[in-house]
Amino acid sequence: MAKKIAAGNWKMNGTSASLSELETLTKSHSTCDCAIVICPPAPLLFRAANLTQDSAINIGAQDCHTDQSGAFTGDVAAHMIADTGASYVIVGHSERREAYAERNRDVRNKAEAARDAGLTAIVCLGESLEDREADNTLDIIGGQLAGSVPNGATADTVVIAYEPIWAIGTGKVPTLDQIIQVHDFIRGELCARFGTETGNQISLLYGGSVKASNAAEIFKAKNVDGALVGGASLQASDFSPIIDALNTA
Ligand SMILES: O=C[C@H](O)COP(=O)(O)O
Fold first, then answer.
1. Mean pLDDT of residues grouped by 10 in the chain (249 residues)?
2. Active-site residue 93, yes or no?
3. Looking at residue 89, which CATH number applies to its domain?
4. Which of 10, 51, 91, 162 is the most buried (most CB within 10 A)?
5. Where does substrate bind (predicted)?
6. What is the ipTM of this complex?
7. Cα separation, 195 vs 177, whole angstroms
8. How many structural domains is the chain composed of?
9. Full-model pTM
10. Which of 159, 170, 173, 228, when mutated, tests ligand 1's pocket best, judged by the most ligand atoms within 8 Å of its CB?
Protein backbone atom coordinates (compact mmCIF):
# COMPACT_ATOMS: atom_id res chain seq x y z
CA MET A 1 0.00 0.00 0.00
CA ALA A 2 1.29 3.46 -0.90
CA LYS A 3 2.11 6.07 1.74
CA LYS A 4 -0.29 9.03 1.91
CA ILE A 5 1.50 12.32 1.34
CA ALA A 6 0.34 15.93 1.69
CA ALA A 7 3.02 18.00 -0.05
CA GLY A 8 3.15 21.78 -0.32
CA ASN A 9 5.13 23.56 -3.02
CA TRP A 10 5.67 27.17 -2.04
CA LYS A 11 7.21 27.93 -5.46
CA MET A 12 8.95 31.36 -5.45
CA ASN A 13 7.02 32.61 -2.45
CA GLY A 14 8.10 33.21 1.11
CA THR A 15 10.89 34.72 3.18
CA SER A 16 12.14 33.98 6.67
CA ALA A 17 8.87 35.50 7.97
CA SER A 18 7.01 32.60 6.36
CA LEU A 19 8.73 30.14 8.67
CA SER A 20 6.05 31.02 11.22
CA GLU A 21 3.59 29.14 8.97
CA LEU A 22 5.80 26.08 9.31
CA GLU A 23 5.94 26.53 13.04
CA THR A 24 2.13 26.61 13.16
CA LEU A 25 1.89 23.44 11.05
CA THR A 26 4.45 21.68 13.22
CA LYS A 27 2.40 22.43 16.33
CA SER A 28 -0.99 21.61 14.83
CA HIS A 29 0.20 18.31 13.31
CA SER A 30 2.54 16.89 15.91
CA THR A 31 1.48 13.41 14.82
CA CYS A 32 0.04 12.50 11.46
CA ASP A 33 -0.96 9.30 9.67
CA CYS A 34 0.28 10.74 6.40
CA ALA A 35 3.64 12.24 5.48
CA ILE A 36 3.64 16.04 5.33
CA VAL A 37 6.21 17.64 3.04
CA ILE A 38 6.82 21.37 2.63
CA CYS A 39 9.00 22.58 -0.24
CA PRO A 40 10.04 26.20 0.43
CA PRO A 41 12.40 28.25 -1.75
CA ALA A 42 16.05 27.10 -1.52
CA PRO A 43 17.26 29.93 0.78
CA LEU A 44 14.84 28.72 3.47
CA LEU A 45 15.71 25.01 3.31
CA PHE A 46 18.27 24.91 6.09
CA ARG A 47 16.19 26.89 8.57
CA ALA A 48 13.01 25.04 7.63
CA ALA A 49 14.71 21.67 8.15
CA ASN A 50 16.06 22.79 11.53
CA LEU A 51 12.70 24.11 12.61
CA THR A 52 10.88 20.89 11.74
CA GLN A 53 13.51 18.47 13.04
CA ASP A 54 11.88 15.68 15.08
CA SER A 55 8.42 16.78 13.91
CA ALA A 56 5.91 15.20 11.52
CA ILE A 57 6.90 17.71 8.82
CA ASN A 58 9.46 16.83 6.15
CA ILE A 59 11.23 19.44 4.05
CA GLY A 60 11.83 19.27 0.31
CA ALA A 61 13.48 21.39 -2.36
CA GLN A 62 11.82 22.44 -5.62
CA ASP A 63 14.58 21.36 -8.02
CA CYS A 64 18.13 20.00 -8.08
CA HIS A 65 20.98 19.81 -10.57
CA THR A 66 21.96 16.53 -12.21
CA ASP A 67 25.65 16.88 -11.28
CA GLN A 68 27.32 16.80 -7.88
CA SER A 69 29.44 19.93 -8.32
CA GLY A 70 30.93 22.17 -10.99
CA ALA A 71 30.58 25.40 -12.89
CA PHE A 72 26.77 25.67 -12.78
CA THR A 73 26.15 29.17 -11.47
CA GLY A 74 22.96 29.44 -9.47
CA ASP A 75 22.29 25.70 -9.33
CA VAL A 76 22.06 23.44 -6.31
CA ALA A 77 23.19 19.79 -6.17
CA ALA A 78 21.03 17.08 -4.62
CA HIS A 79 23.59 16.25 -1.92
CA MET A 80 23.63 19.96 -0.92
CA ILE A 81 19.87 19.74 -0.43
CA ALA A 82 20.29 16.60 1.69
CA ASP A 83 22.97 18.45 3.67
CA THR A 84 20.39 21.05 4.76
CA GLY A 85 18.36 18.28 6.40
CA ALA A 86 15.75 18.14 3.62
CA SER A 87 14.57 14.71 2.46
CA TYR A 88 12.53 15.35 -0.71
CA VAL A 89 12.99 17.24 -3.96
CA ILE A 90 10.47 18.07 -6.68
CA VAL A 91 11.77 17.35 -10.19
CA GLY A 92 10.20 18.00 -13.57
CA HIS A 93 7.53 20.43 -12.42
CA SER A 94 5.71 21.71 -15.53
CA GLU A 95 6.84 25.26 -14.72
CA ARG A 96 10.47 24.09 -15.04
CA ARG A 97 9.77 21.86 -18.04
CA GLU A 98 8.37 24.95 -19.76
CA ALA A 99 10.55 27.83 -18.52
CA TYR A 100 13.86 25.91 -18.58
CA ALA A 101 13.07 23.49 -21.43
CA GLU A 102 13.66 20.50 -19.17
CA ARG A 103 13.15 17.26 -21.08
CA ASN A 104 12.23 13.86 -19.72
CA ARG A 105 15.89 12.83 -19.84
CA ASP A 106 16.89 15.82 -17.68
CA VAL A 107 14.14 15.01 -15.19
CA ARG A 108 15.26 11.39 -14.98
CA ASN A 109 18.88 12.49 -14.40
CA LYS A 110 17.71 14.79 -11.62
CA ALA A 111 15.67 11.99 -10.04
CA GLU A 112 18.76 9.76 -10.18
CA ALA A 113 20.88 12.48 -8.57
CA ALA A 114 18.23 12.82 -5.85
CA ARG A 115 18.22 9.06 -5.23
CA ASP A 116 22.02 8.98 -5.03
CA ALA A 117 21.89 11.76 -2.42
CA GLY A 118 19.34 9.84 -0.33
CA LEU A 119 16.42 12.10 -1.26
CA THR A 120 12.95 11.09 -2.47
CA ALA A 121 12.20 12.67 -5.86
CA ILE A 122 8.66 13.93 -6.45
CA VAL A 123 8.50 13.46 -10.22
CA CYS A 124 5.87 15.69 -11.86
CA LEU A 125 3.90 14.75 -14.97
CA GLY A 126 1.07 16.59 -16.68
CA GLU A 127 -0.61 17.31 -19.97
CA SER A 128 -1.40 20.71 -21.49
CA LEU A 129 -4.95 21.76 -22.31
CA GLU A 130 -4.12 21.26 -25.97
CA ASP A 131 -3.01 17.65 -25.27
CA ARG A 132 -6.16 17.00 -23.25
CA GLU A 133 -8.45 18.43 -25.93
CA ALA A 134 -6.71 16.36 -28.60
CA ASP A 135 -7.30 13.25 -26.47
CA ASN A 136 -3.55 12.73 -26.07
CA THR A 137 -3.44 12.78 -22.27
CA LEU A 138 -2.49 9.15 -21.66
CA ASP A 139 0.11 9.18 -24.45
CA ILE A 140 1.74 12.27 -22.96
CA ILE A 141 1.63 10.95 -19.40
CA GLY A 142 2.92 7.54 -20.51
CA GLY A 143 5.84 9.15 -22.34
CA GLN A 144 6.73 11.43 -19.42
CA LEU A 145 6.50 8.54 -16.97
CA ALA A 146 8.68 6.22 -19.05
CA GLY A 147 11.23 8.95 -19.76
CA SER A 148 11.38 10.73 -16.39
CA VAL A 149 11.34 7.91 -13.83
CA PRO A 150 14.66 6.12 -13.27
CA ASN A 151 15.06 2.38 -13.63
CA GLY A 152 14.90 0.57 -10.32
CA ALA A 153 12.60 3.18 -8.78
CA THR A 154 11.12 2.29 -5.39
CA ALA A 155 8.65 3.94 -3.04
CA ASP A 156 11.59 5.35 -1.08
CA THR A 157 13.19 7.00 -4.09
CA VAL A 158 10.22 8.16 -6.17
CA VAL A 159 6.80 9.74 -5.69
CA ILE A 160 4.73 10.64 -8.76
CA ALA A 161 2.71 13.86 -8.94
CA TYR A 162 0.11 14.10 -11.72
CA GLU A 163 -0.51 17.79 -12.36
CA PRO A 164 -2.55 18.70 -15.45
CA ILE A 165 -0.94 21.98 -16.53
CA TRP A 166 -4.33 23.58 -17.21
CA ALA A 167 -5.37 22.98 -13.58
CA ILE A 168 -2.32 24.61 -11.97
CA GLY A 169 -3.19 27.90 -10.30
CA THR A 170 -6.31 28.29 -12.44
CA GLY A 171 -9.04 27.09 -10.07
CA LYS A 172 -10.00 24.53 -12.73
CA VAL A 173 -9.99 20.95 -11.48
CA PRO A 174 -10.45 17.83 -13.62
CA THR A 175 -13.49 15.71 -12.90
CA LEU A 176 -12.97 12.86 -10.48
CA ASP A 177 -13.31 10.45 -13.40
CA GLN A 178 -10.54 12.24 -15.29
CA ILE A 179 -8.24 12.08 -12.25
CA ILE A 180 -9.07 8.40 -11.69
CA GLN A 181 -8.42 7.56 -15.34
CA VAL A 182 -4.92 9.05 -15.27
CA HIS A 183 -4.00 7.71 -11.82
CA ASP A 184 -5.19 4.20 -12.72
CA PHE A 185 -3.13 4.42 -15.89
CA ILE A 186 -0.01 5.54 -13.99
CA ARG A 187 -0.49 2.77 -11.43
CA GLY A 188 -0.77 0.19 -14.21
CA GLU A 189 2.38 1.46 -15.92
CA LEU A 190 4.34 1.44 -12.65
CA CYS A 191 3.22 -2.12 -11.86
CA ALA A 192 4.13 -3.27 -15.37
CA ARG A 193 7.59 -1.71 -15.16
CA PHE A 194 8.59 -2.26 -11.52
CA GLY A 195 6.44 -5.23 -10.51
CA THR A 196 3.12 -5.24 -8.68
CA GLU A 197 4.54 -4.88 -5.18
CA THR A 198 6.72 -1.85 -5.91
CA GLY A 199 4.22 -0.40 -8.38
CA ASN A 200 1.52 -0.39 -5.74
CA GLN A 201 3.81 1.12 -3.09
CA ILE A 202 4.83 4.22 -5.06
CA SER A 203 2.69 7.17 -3.92
CA LEU A 204 0.65 8.97 -6.60
CA LEU A 205 -0.23 12.58 -5.80
CA TYR A 206 -2.71 14.78 -7.62
CA GLY A 207 -1.83 18.47 -8.07
CA GLY A 208 -3.67 21.44 -9.56
CA SER A 209 -5.96 23.84 -7.67
CA VAL A 210 -6.32 21.56 -4.63
CA LYS A 211 -7.88 23.44 -1.73
CA ALA A 212 -9.71 22.73 1.51
CA SER A 213 -13.05 22.77 -0.28
CA ASN A 214 -12.23 20.07 -2.86
CA ALA A 215 -9.54 17.97 -1.14
CA ALA A 216 -11.83 15.42 0.53
CA GLU A 217 -13.57 14.68 -2.77
CA ILE A 218 -10.26 14.25 -4.64
CA PHE A 219 -8.85 11.98 -1.90
CA LYS A 220 -11.81 9.63 -2.31
CA ALA A 221 -10.46 8.58 -5.69
CA LYS A 222 -8.73 5.22 -5.95
CA ASN A 223 -5.00 5.52 -6.56
CA VAL A 224 -4.88 9.09 -5.27
CA ASP A 225 -2.47 8.87 -2.33
CA GLY A 226 -2.29 12.57 -1.60
CA ALA A 227 -1.71 15.94 -3.19
CA LEU A 228 0.97 18.34 -4.33
CA VAL A 229 -0.47 21.71 -3.39
CA GLY A 230 0.74 25.12 -4.56
CA GLY A 231 -1.19 28.23 -3.52
CA ALA A 232 -3.13 26.58 -0.71
CA SER A 233 0.07 25.41 1.00
CA LEU A 234 1.39 28.90 1.73
CA GLN A 235 -0.73 29.51 4.81
CA ALA A 236 -1.00 26.90 7.55
CA SER A 237 -4.69 27.75 7.90
CA ASP A 238 -5.30 26.72 4.26
CA PHE A 239 -3.03 23.68 4.24
CA SER A 240 -4.11 22.17 7.59
CA PRO A 241 -7.62 21.19 6.44
CA ILE A 242 -6.09 19.52 3.36
CA ILE A 243 -3.84 17.44 5.62
CA ASP A 244 -6.85 16.61 7.80
CA ALA A 245 -8.87 15.56 4.74
CA LEU A 246 -6.06 13.19 3.69
CA ASN A 247 -5.76 11.77 7.20
CA THR A 248 -9.43 10.89 7.26
CA ALA A 249 -9.67 9.71 3.64
O1 LIG B 1 3.21 22.14 -7.36
C2 LIG B 1 2.04 22.48 -7.20
C3 LIG B 1 1.17 22.67 -8.31
O4 LIG B 1 1.76 23.36 -9.36
C5 LIG B 1 -0.23 23.10 -8.00
O6 LIG B 1 -0.33 24.48 -7.78
P7 LIG B 1 -1.75 25.09 -7.31
O8 LIG B 1 -2.20 24.25 -6.15
O9 LIG B 1 -1.45 26.49 -6.94
O10 LIG B 1 -2.68 24.93 -8.48
1. 97 96 92 92 98 94 98 98 98 97 98 98 97 97 98 98 96 94 98 98 98 96 97 97 95
2. yes
3. 3.20.20.70
4. 91
5. 9-11, 169, 209, 230-231
6. 0.99
7. 25
8. 1
9. 0.97
10. 228
